Amino acid sequence: MSEQHKIRVSVDIYGQTYKMVGSETSGHMRLVASMVDDKMREINSHNPSLDSSKLAVLTAVNTVHEYVKLKEQVEQLEEEIKRLKG
């Protein structure tokens, strides 16, 4: 994708402004940023002594964990569909 087709948007995550660049819509990028912000605030509410760096890593670990679990569920559902069609 050429540079002129990239979408640029400023977002706020945990009190910091970030400039995001991507091929998705600005609404999509804002939604992702909002979900990251929400997750960081949720984790911070349970671990208020974490510094921002550790909070960011813990947020990433939790998010990837959720992604892996969802990916496993999708794979199980795909196998079930194949079995039912078979």
UniProtKB/TrEMBL annotation:
It is found in: Cytoplasm. Signal peptide: none annotated. InterPro entries: Bac_CellDiv_Activator, Cell_div_ZapA-like, Cell_div_ZapA-like_sf, Cell_div_ZapA_firmicutes. GO terms for cellular component: cell division site; cell septum; cytosol. Keywords: Cell cycle, Cell division, Cytoplasm, Septation. SUPFAM superfamilies: Cell division protein ZapA-like (SSF102829). The keyword Nucleus does not apply. GO terms for biological process: division septum assembly; FtsZ-dependent cytokinesis; septin ring assembly. The keyword Zinc does not apply. Activator of cell division through the inhibition of FtsZ GTPase activity, therefore promoting FtsZ assembly into bundles of protofilaments necessary for the formation of the division Z ring. It is recruited early at mid-cell but it is not essential for cell division. Homodimer. Interacts with FtsZ. This is Cell division protein ZapA. It comes from Paenisporosarcina quisquiliarum. The lineage of its organism: Bacteria, Bacillati, Bacillota, Bacilli, Bacillales.
